[in-house]
Specification:
The protein has about 90 residues and is mainly alpha-helical. The chain is about 90% helix and about 0% strand.
Length: about 90
């Protein structure tokens, strides 16, 4: 009637079944984390075109503010180096 069940076929079906069970158990175990993750991913996916639109509209503003961010970064880096140098001498 059907194909003969060989040891090889039995091992493959058993392995596939165990793999499916393991994946289902893992999904069940992580379900508390997966739902918020996929909701956040969906929202990010839906909002992405709006983000691109805003970035294109404010591109000239961002290039103007790069110098300001660079200055603040340099100031903070200088202050951090100064603090770490003084604490090393104490």
């Amino acid at each position: 009637m059907g194909k003969e069940i060989t040891f090889d076929r039995f091992i493959r079906w058993t392995g596939t079944g165990l793999l499916i069970i393991a994946v289902l158990l893992l999904v069940n175990y992580l379900s508390g984390v997966l739902l918020p993750f996929f909701v956040a991913w969906l929202l990010a996916y839906l909002i992405y075109p709006t983000v691109q639109f805003i970035e294109k509209r404010t591109a000239h503003t961002c290039t103007r503010n790069k110098h300001h961010h660079h200055n603040v970064d340099s100031m903070l880096r200088h202050r951090w180096n100064h603090l770490s140098h003084n604490s090393a001498n104490d």
